[in-house]
Amino acid sequence: MLGPNRYGKAETRLVRVSRDGDTHALVDLNVSVALSGDLAATHLTGDNAGVLPTDTMKNTVYAFAKKHGVGEPEEFGLLLARHFVATQPQVKAARVSIESFGWQRLGPHSFARKGDHTRLASVLVTDEFEQVVSGVTGLVLLNSTASEFRGFPRDEYTTLPETTDRILATAVDARWRHLSASGDFAKSYAAALDALTSAFVNTYSSSLQQTLFSMGSHVLSQRPEIAEVRLALPNKHHYLVDLSPFDLANDNEVFIAGDRPYGLIEGTVTRDDAPPAAAEWYS
Ligand SMILES: O=c1[nH]c(=O)c2[nH]c(=O)[nH]c2[nH]1
């Protein structure tokens, strides 16, 4: 006997940007849909006449985000769940579960993901030298515009369209080497973090590589006690959803937040008169 069952699309990652002139708002959701009802036939005989594709559920999430906007997650969930029950007679129950990720505003189109990033410190001491490296990991930043990527070479495997307006998002992983083993490390850390963040916010980006150099060099220009900055910036891709099959325009408003794979941009920015590192930073 077939027991209780349900099916649906889990973890549709939706980022909805609302553009009110220069000031943007951001909603970042993970939406899971599960439908149940008269679904015995597909399990027992392979008859799919009652099986609305899970792919359709995902499309509905994105189309509704454009059409109706996304208010409170409870309201967006109700909108979707009522739609599936009302339009699919075989569906007797729809559960929509939503995780909503919070973002803190940094500027008109700049945001930092809420939740703590991690401060790092690593020191190395021998009889001859002392080396102090500070850092941060898991600082997630996003600009909803002021980012492009174009002018790159194309070969027979290149499909990426050029863009003059995209989301740029990353989870900053940075380490910086101090010139001296003494100082006000609390103040230095706070100021370095601020320099990294403000450079991300204020750089009109032609590539994440350019933003990386801007972030590293801003730390060095603001903080004389720091000799070198090493950055690893994952490019947290946001793909524009093609809503044209549903006769909806998508003017950089509805995005799929990609998970993997991701671009990984790594680089070092060094003060030109700084002494070289005394030893490798990572063992
Ligand atoms: O800023 C970027 N740098 C790249 O090297 C790259 N490659 C890619 O596919 N997209 C991007 N974006």
Mean pLDDT: 97
In what range is the share of β-strand residues?
35-45%
* β-strand number: 12
Bound ligands, each once: uric acid
Secondary structure tally, helices: 5
Structure, explained:
The chain has 283 residues and is an alpha+beta fold. It is 24% helix and 36% strand. It is built from 5 helices and 12 strands. The protein has helices at residues 40-44, 54-68, 73-87, 185-202, 208-222, and strands at 12-20, 23-37, 91-101, 103-107, 110-113, 118-125, 130-143, 168-178, 226-235, 238-240, 254-257, 263-270. The strands form 2 sheets. Strands 4, 5, 6, 7, 8, 9 and 12 form a 7-stranded antiparallel beta sheet that branches. Strand 4 (103-107) and strand 5 form a beta hairpin. Helix 4 (185-202) runs antiparallel to helix 5. The mean pLDDT is 97. Bound molecules: uric acid (URC).
What would the keywords be for this entry?
elongated, single chain, seven-stranded antiparallel sheet, alpha+beta, 283 residues, five-stranded antiparallel sheet, 24% helix, binds uric acid
What order do the helices and strands come in, and which of them pair?
Blueprint: E1 12-20, E2 23-37, H1 40-44, H2 54-68, H3 73-87, E3 91-101, E4 103-107, E5 110-113, E6 118-125, E7 130-143, E8 168-178, H4 185-202, H5 208-222, E9 226-235, E10 238-240, E11 254-257, E12 263-270
Antiparallel strand pairs: 1-2, 1-11, 2-3, 4-5, 5-7, 6-7, 7-8, 8-9, 9-12, 10-11
Helix pairs in contact: 4-5
